[in-house]
Amino acid sequence: MRWLVRLIGSVLVLIFLLGLMVVLMPKDRVAQMAADRFASATGRKLTIEGSVRPSIWPVLGVKTGPVRLANADWGTEPDMLRAERLDIGLDLAALLSGVVKITGIEVVGPDLLLERHKDGRVNWDLSPTAKAAAEGSAPAQAAPGYDTFTLDHGRIRDGRLRYVDRAAGQAITLEDVALESAIPDYTGPVSLQGSAQINGQRVALSATVAALGAFLDGKTTGLDLGLVTGRSRLSLVGTAGFDPVQVEGRLSADLSDKAALAAVAGQPLPDLPQGFGRESLALEAGLQLDAKGAVRLRDLAVQADGGQITGRLDWLPGKDRPLLRGDLAMGAVALPRTSEDSAPKAAEGSGWPKEEIDVSALGAFDADLTLAAQSIDLGSAKLGQTRATVVLDRARAVITLLDAAGYGGKINGEFVVNGRKGLSVGGDLSFAGLSMQPLLADVAGFDRLLASGDLRVKFLGVGNSLDAILRGLSGEAQMHVGKGELRGLDVAGMLRTLDPGYVGEGAKTIFDTMSIGVMITDGVAVSEDLAISAPLFAATGAGKVDLGGQKLDYRLMPRLLPKSDGTGGVEIPILISGAWADPKIRLDLEWLARQRLTEEKARAEAAAKARLEELAREKLGVEALEGENLEGAAKRRAKQALEDEAARALGRLLGND
Fold it and tell me: Biological process GO terms, please (predicted)?
């Protein structure tokens, strides 16, 4: 048991010596040493208020009262840092030999203000030459010991950080800040770990700087940076410096946790379309950031909703707005619809969506992009493999389809969305070899026309909703299709039987060609030149389609082709009217009766005229020449009689018999 007694006695003696050492410790000297050491290394005054108390646990050292660090002379507040207290750790071995050596500093409850002046100066430049450089005087020599500053352990807890960029007009506040670091060699690598709350969302930070001294001097040095919030992560491995600002390296990011990112951003994130990160988004790229704020991404690879986007992007600051420039190749793309059920509503004939279309994002930046996609779902239309350019200038976007496949054919032309003053849309598009049924079904909810053909459309619409745009639409269109069929209507059956019941399910009209031209004014498309060629009949047509109201009023004029013996050739008009989702089709017998009455009247007038001519020939001897009416023949006959009588009178006067 003697060894146990000796051990306990030794421990008691050690505790007594430590207690005596703490009592005799030069506490004020330690605090003043820390303040002087910091001031000599940074050029800023560090004020330690209140009493300085010794501590044994958890570290040997002293605890100070409130602490204040002076701000830059141009700062908006007198203090750059205010803290509840400092816990200063001391080296025990050095202390036993009579030397005070600081091994660690813990800052409790700090409130740190970081400011960037409009001229680019920053208040966290703590080198003693910063003030001299700002005033234009000769730089002072760094204080002795600045390059040899070391710290075994540094810690910040329960802090707040405010960042104010007066040049950019931005302000960010971080709460519950916690940081830990060590500086074993001021000129060597230093690692930092920390976390903070931004708008209530926890963000974790890890960073390693290859050379701390060079980095704080603004020089470019190696940097390994990592950020984590929720399930989203970002990492950068490369080089960085801030005098001037420049970053280059490999960027990796997983941005799938949109709720966490929205909380950090302090605002809702944009509703990304399917294929662009609606469900998941991750990227890797070579990153370049320069002093002007230009960001360049090279070898970009984005994993979005299971698809991949590759290419390059440049984000270039501008005087009025930034410019986004680049080339992107992607898989299937689905753009967001104006409304979840806008397409079904159009098909049901209940009207176009009246919700206001927000195009304010068009004014956020300019763009010059070249895009290639395997397919594009526009909501109301679908494209196959597509190559296009997008030019966005002052809230006016011009989308040029260089080569687009869709509905079995090819599409070329341009589409314009102008958000400069309200909203207007326009386009000049050519469709070649398209399958009309799926196209018209997607665009207008009309699936009765089965044929392939060509279509040319030019249009302009103004309004802040789809309903307003279509009700004010203007433009023109031409369509020509080859052999096909029109479902829901049997024109030949109607003509043969004069029965309007040849409509509905199972009825169809087979044709060889169809062509039509349309002029659009105030949302109403008017056509006067419909022409249909079919095996049993030929038809013309005229009428109008109310695009905004989704109604039509059209008269089809089909005529049965005459038989080989010359019989047949019946012409009966067909009236198509009502909502285009469920049009009413009927024989226009009233028009037919009026037409027949007009024809009978014309025949009666012709018969009466013929009888008058016959009587004139019999009574007056007037015979009409070819192309001459009865009145003209009578005048000619009277003139001829007068000329003959004048000739006879002249002969008698001259003595001729």
Answer: regulation of protein targeting to membrane
Q: How far is CA 351 from CA 14, 170, 566, in A?
A: 90, 44, 49
pLDDT (average), residues 146-155: 74
The more confidently predicted of residues 527 and 601 is 527
Closest CA to 525 of 563, 562, 481, 473: 473
Query: What are the counts of helices (DSSP H) followed by strands (DSSP E) for the chain?
Result: 12, 36
Q: What is the DSSP letter of 655?
A: T
- Cα-trace Rg, the chain: 45
CB contact set of 27 (below 8 Å; sequence gap of 6+)? 52, 53, 54, 62
* Cα 218 from chain centre: 37
The mean-pLDDT minimum among 94-98, 239-243, 521-525 falls in: 94-98
Q: Is the same domain home to 524 and 569?
A: yes
Domain extent, residue 49, equals 27-138+145-185
- Output the six-digit token pair for 166: 């007066």
Judge if 554 and 486 occupy the same domain.
Answer: yes
Closest CA relative to residue 315, chosen from 328, 306, 324, 303: 324
CB atoms within 10 A of CB 583: 20
Place of tokens 């009825």: 507
Q: Which SS3 state, helix, strand or coil, does residue 442 take?
A: helix
Tell me how far CA of residue 508 lies from CA of 273, 393, 449, 492, in angstroms.
39, 49, 10, 9
Structure tokens at 260: 């966490």
Same domain, residue pair 627 and 583: no
Residue 294 domain-assigned? Answer: no
User: How many whole angstroms separate alpha carbon 526 and alpha carbon 362?
Assistant: 34
Give the whole-angstrom CA distance, residue 591 versus residue 587: 9
Three-class DSSP category at 409: strand
One domain, residues 516 and 611: no
Provide the 3-class DSSP secondary structure of residue 225: strand
- Other CB atoms closer than 10 Å to residue 247's CB: what's the count? 19
The DSSP string of 470-512 is HHT-EEEEEEEE-SEEEEEE-HHHHHHH--TT-EEEEEEEEES
CA distance 205 to 387: 41
Boundary (domain end) residue, out of 153, 170, 185: 185
Strand residues in 119-262 grouped as ranges (E): 151-165, 170-183, 190-198, 201-209, 221-229, 232-242, 245-254
Per the structure block, which two tokens stand in for 411? Answer: 């599409």
| pLDDT, averaged across the chain | 80
State residue 53's pLDDT score.
75
- Residue 478 or residue 647, greater confidence: 478
Q: Does residue 563 share a domain with residue 499?
A: yes
Which tokens in the block code for residue 561?
Answer: 């082709």
Instruction: Give the whole-angstrom CA distance, residue 136 versus residue 481.
Output: 79
Find the DSSP H helices in 97-206: 130-135
What are the strands, taking DSSP E only, across 407-451? Answer: 409-418, 424-435, 449-450
Token digits for 103?
């091994």
Q: How far is it, in rounded angstroms, from Cα 471 to Cα 464?
A: 11
Rounded to 5 degrees, φ, ψ at 106 are -120, 125
Number of domains in the chain: 3
For 85-117, letters b (16+ CB in 10 Å) and e give bbbbbbbeeebeeeebebbbbbbbebbbbbbbb
Judge if 568 and 623 occupy the same domain: no
Supply the pLDDT for residue 5: 35
The token pair that represents 56 in the structure block: 């044994």
Q: Quick one: 38 and 171 in the same domain?
A: yes
Q: Are residues 519 and 635 in the same domain?
A: no
Residue 385 carries which DSSP code?
Answer: S
Q: What is the pLDDT of residues 47-86, one digit of tens each?
A: 888 777 776 666 677 788 898 888 888 888 999 989 998 8
